[in-house]
Amino acid sequence: MENLDADKVILGGTPVDLMDPGPALELILARAGRTGLPPLGVASVNLDHLHHFGAGGRWEGTLHADPASTVDWLYLLDGAPLVSQSQRLTGHRWPRLAGSDLASPLLDRAEQLGLRVGFLGGSPENQQILIRKIAVEHPRLQVAGMWSPDREELASARDSERIAADIAAAGTQILYVGLGKPRQELWIDHYAALTGAAVLLAFGAALDFLAGRVHRAPQWASDHGLEWGYRLALEPKRLASRYLIDGPPAYLKLRTASCTVPHPRLESVPSAAPAPRTPGRFTGPDGAADAAVVVVTYNSAHGVGPLLESLREETADLTLRVLVADNSSTDGTLAKVRSAHPDVIAFATGGNLGYSGGINAAMRRAGDTATVVVLNPDVTVERGSLKTMMHRLHSSRAGAVVPRLLDESGTTSPSLYREPSLANAVGDALVGRRFPNRPGWLAGTDYNPESYAHPHTVHWATGAALMVRRSLADALAWDESYFLYSEEVDFFRGLRTMGETVWYEPAAVMIHAGAGSGTSPQLNALLAVNRVRYFRKYHSSAYAKVFHGAVVLSEALRCWKPDRRGVLRTVLDEGSWTALPVATRDPDTAFFPAGSVIVPAHNEASVIARTLAPLAPLAAAGQIEVIVVCNGCADDTAAIARRFEGVTVLEIGRPSKSAALNAGDAAATKWPRLYLDADVQISPRAVRDVLTALGTGGPLAVRPAVQFDLQDAHPLIHSYYRTRLRLPSARNRLWAGGVYGLSEQGRKRFKEFPNLTADDLFVDRLFEPAEKGVLDVDPVVIRPPRTPRDQLAVLHRVYRGNAEQNGDAGQHSTARQTFGEVLRSVRGPLSAVHAAVYLGFAVAGRQGAAGSGTWERDDSSRAPAREGTAG
Q1: Is 724 exposed, middle or buried (0-12, 13-18, 19+ CB in 10 A)?
Q2: Cα–Cα distance, 861 to 839 (Å, whole number)
Q3: What is the pLDDT of residues 173-188, one digit of tens each?
Q4: How buried is residue 521: exposed, middle or buried, by Cβ count under 10 Å (0-12/13-18/19+)?
């Protein structure tokens, strides 16, 4: 986008361009006369704008933070409170530039310059008055046309496109858009490019001012910041809510979410090579795919077929790997899918694991894909929707995207929700679905039709259909303790905690039959109870008790309904909650051995949430013990780790990994023990298999296999790890995996972890080959350095650690052995190139190993924006 020549501040969470009237007017007119540039949208930023588009507003980030926008926005300072706040921030008093102040001067200049002007919005009566007034006051003004659509037309994409085409056909250069906030800004952002207009002015009431139907406040009222009171007195019915209800919270945003900022810098989105298309069929478990589609079924034999057929149509655009995780269906779902769709990866989960358990089971088979799509089996996908969602995912740098859901009659379903709170729980309890236009803080569900007409960020949405980046899906396991209901609320909260956004994309449409899991008083009781469980997970005991009371109130007011019979009794009697549906496993998968996981962490705020997410549910259930030892942390590592229920967090002042390992050992109470680096991802299944292998009579020390996540890494990094994966020593030793486990007997081989750089090498050398091993189980995921420079820094540390122990223990260097393995890994010209790269890194790494003795840290693989981690 073009860099608009203006100072900028953030007021209440939205940008504002600080300009004097003359330059602002000239900029708008200059853009009106130019072609070949994106259309310029001009918005007046006042408290009403902050209410809609500022921090915490429904449309937060929709305009200024959406790289997918095709509009350059100029945000003008409007309103006495914003003028005062901008002066506090900059030390300079900037003039107020309300749309109503600029509307008339712009008409004068447009008349002089011969620019064609159009008007969108306002009633037909007001437009007739305006036409007559223009004929008298601006006789030479070229009026392209006037359009007065109703709300239904503006909410319709087809009608809006028709209106935009009419505006374009009229040759409009400047378009006054008076549809009211936020509709006018949203309409401009979506349809501006179709109108052909170079400048679109979101000036709201300016049309009424131009027509003379609404009079400006006296100058003394404007000078003293009292214009709002004058307008409220004139139109109390229309403006009372804006000024008296929405105004005070917006003013609070203004005072608490404002700052000075440089011009925003747009970063390019890295593009991966597209996977080869396989139109008409799904790809198998091997190779790359554009998306892995996860479908969890339970007695879904009749519904899953239409979904799979609709997905097959999407393979014309994307390579899809489709996984069906069946939760012990008794209606032949699994056999039907395997018979009718042999290219679907369909498998039994080993029990009825619930929705979360099924998703987690499918994720372990997702393979090489950068995107994951989760769909209910009773959803069908309209053609092109997955491609549209993927475009939104990349263009808006979203963490996840959800589509518009229609019911079987074609009506948009209310599928967007606000984060549960006491206020919206009480509002829902008292009025339910009535009064859908009540304030958002009193409604958990977003019923506003405007919200379903435009793309924007949301708190959470129904889990029936969503697309999420693979790195985030791996980092954030679905909480299996919910079984059904509230699991998606928890998942979306996890994404937001990681600093990610969730976007709603109305252009992606899916049909949701609904009630895919059935409905009954027992399931409704589970829904109510899980709302309480979710609230208890993230809020204080006292606050959660009040929320529990709001749920009780809701059920008491609806207990007469047949499908709510017994729900109130269940919600009141916590002892009965254990009788509600829970995940059940087949006997061969139900057992989970005891053990401890010790995670040393030094300033790992950017990755610790990703590591703990799959472990925390096990810790919360008491199946394993998870201990995070923050050693010398100066960031939020400890605070983030404490958010996970069941995780024990220790803090020691010294930044020493060996001291952290020893402190964790001292606090741990269970055997065997797993020592896990804070930036390594491990699945619950791998934890189970490692702890099981270390049981009585098994090996003394093991680790799981390793999978290197090389997405976005430099080509030389790819080359280095291609060779490394071929080396027997790298595959069969305990070191370089970021994780290893010890049985109680194995841990007795040494008193405490010595102060050495390479603890895994130290442990590896304590055991004979027959006493240790690398398990062929779910691999842990390691993100190596992204750049050669960072890779060398890590190698300096590794080789220095090797040298420490070679010298202390009289061990010989393994360089000769490694060199021989590298030579034997060569199978052709390409592998020879990879081997040469590996040896080049090895030589350079050894040469710089002496270093300063500091711990060289790789931050390239810990970037929060790319990884989707907290902090």
Answers
A1: buried
A2: 22
A3: 999 998 888 899 999 9
A4: middle
